[in-house]
Amino acid sequence: MIPVRKPIRIGNSKGARIPAHLIRSYHLERGFVMKPDQEGILIAPADGSKLTLDESFAAMALDQSDLKTTCKRAESGRSDGLEEDSGF
């Protein structure tokens, strides 16, 4: 079940809290846009919210399983994209 959230007062306006894990998961740390949609409001990362090179490396380091697969392929010589036995 999706939790129901109530608007909160922010000065003379109303706002909504976005849980930290959603901000991280959807890369909203640098800003986001809100777009009206037929089903509600779509919240998406702002165009300038691309990850820096350091942030990209950090995100890739979190997925160790992909790194291990890449390393195994490189060690076996299969990372060149060529078939194992081409018949020549």
Notable features of this structure?
single chain, 88 residues
Which helices and strands occur, and which strands form pairs?
Elements: E1 8-10, E2 13-15, H1 20-25, E3 32-37, E4 40-45, H2 53-62, H3 64-76
Antiparallel strand pairs: 1-2, 3-4
Descriptive report:
This protein has 88 residues and is of the alpha+beta class. The protein has helices at 20-25, 53-62, 64-76, and strands at 8-10, 13-15, 32-37, 40-45. A two-stranded antiparallel sheet has the order 1-2. A two-stranded antiparallel ribbon has the order 3-4. Strand 3 and strand 4 (40-45) form a beta hairpin. It is elongated and about 60 Å long.
Short description:
By secondary structure, the protein is of the alpha+beta class.
Main pleated-sheet profile:
2 strands, antiparallel
**What portion of residues is helical?**
25-40%
Q: Strand portion, in percent?
A: 15-25%
Spans where pLDDT lies below 50 across 5 or more residues = none
Compute the gyration radius: what is it? 22 Å
Count of helical regions:
3
Secondary-structure element order, N to C: EEHEEHH
Strands ordered across the widest β-sheet:
1-2
Structural class: alpha+beta
User: How confident overall, as mean pLDDT?
Assistant: 76
Number of strands: 4
